[in-house]
Amino acid sequence: MMTIQFNGTPIHLGSLESGPFNALLEEYSTRKKVIVVDENTHDCCLEYLLTAFPSLEDAEVMLLPAGEENKALEVCYQVWSAMLEYQINRNDLVINLGGGVVTDLGGFIASVYKRGIDFIHIPTSLMGMVDAAIGGKNGVDLNGLKNIIGTITQPKAIFVDSGFLETLPAEEIFNGYAEMLKHALILDAAYWNQLKVLNTEEELIQLTNIIRSIELKKQVVEADPTEKGKRKLLNFGHSLGHALESYFLSKQAIAHGHAVALGMIGESYVSYKRGVLAVDEYREIEQCIIRVFPMLEIPEEAIEELIELMRNDKKNERNTLNFVLLECIGKAQVNAEMTSSEVGEALLHLSLLAQHGN
Ligand SMILES: NC(=O)c1ccc[n+]([C@@H]2O[C@H](COP(=O)([O-])OP(=O)(O)OC[C@H]3O[C@@H](n4cnc5c(N)ncnc54)[C@H](O)[C@@H]3O)[C@@H](O)[C@H]2O)c1
Fold this sequence. Notes:
- The chain has two domains: 2-167, Rossmann fold (3-Layer(aba) Sandwich); 170-355, Dehydroquinate synthase-like, alpha domain.
- It contains 15 helices and eleven strands.
- The protein has helices spanning 20-27, 39-44, 46-52, 73-85, 100-112, 126-132, 170-187, 189-195, 201-204, 207-223, 238-249, 256-273, 279-292, 303-311, 340-355, and strands spanning 2-6, 9-13, 33-38, 60-64, 93-98, 118-123, 137-142, 145-152, 157-160, 322-328, 331-337.
């Protein structure tokens, strides 16, 4: 068992059964517990938790529908009402057992219920372990816009047990891998060299890599907790990625990690075209991502719509197109303002990669 301290929150890495989780349950032994799960973590993860930790047998289980479309206030109302009904009080504990949707929702629910009660995260997806459960951001979507309502509230503790990944579908593992590649590209060339050669799902879920990603996210978030500067590095691949995710939602929805992977190619391409990133490094990034993620054709008539989506991204200020630019593998700069034609060219290039059979 290893513990990383993150903004005052301990992140325990290793088997849940190796100590600190039992100590926490002991601390809350006289308190009520609420366990938040979605349909899949209910089926794949909850039974283990209740069997291994019998003191949780009396916990109230809040079963949420799975999927991003349920990261919504309507779901929160139902959970808050049930918590009132079960007379959950300010010194009780919420345990979020799930992927990023459950930890974002459950963290938000707990952070405002009775002006905030203690909660912990037990992330069960790779995305949750390397990114979503880490950093204190939580929240819900509104009117099709992501994470519009939320708080930044640190959980009491985070428990990362990679054993939960055994039941995670392959596509979801690649989703998490995209965020790990992002951490490497913006901050750590040596980590990139380790990640770029991984192939199998077993290789992708090694705890050492999960730990490295958490350390890198910690480094950025602790330097800039309110996202005024350095934390924006974490948006690499996301300006283009979010627009692609929204655009394809009504056609053939693509996973967040897939969209970010395409976004990272596009944003690296812009960096190369600007003369900031060397061509051989650009090619290396393109090859690594193409190896794992399918390329998608982007119709020419979609380009304007995609650029408009990027202008409206909540992270963009004053309607500009702000990107993170890669200077080299392992180093990036924030707040680079793009022109529409640069972004359009990157989108056309992405589409060409799909047309030429990758
Ligand atoms: N708060 C943050 O800083 C932050 C950062 C990144 C992403 N996010 C959010 O995280 C969400 C994406 O997270 P995600 O990719 O984990 O999505 P998710 O929670 O929807 O999980 C993906 C799928 O895997 C299933 N699943 C999870 N763990 C499982 C397991 N062990 N076995 C079987 N199935 C399992 C889920 O039920 C779901 O169907 C998005 O809403 C995103 O906005 C938040």
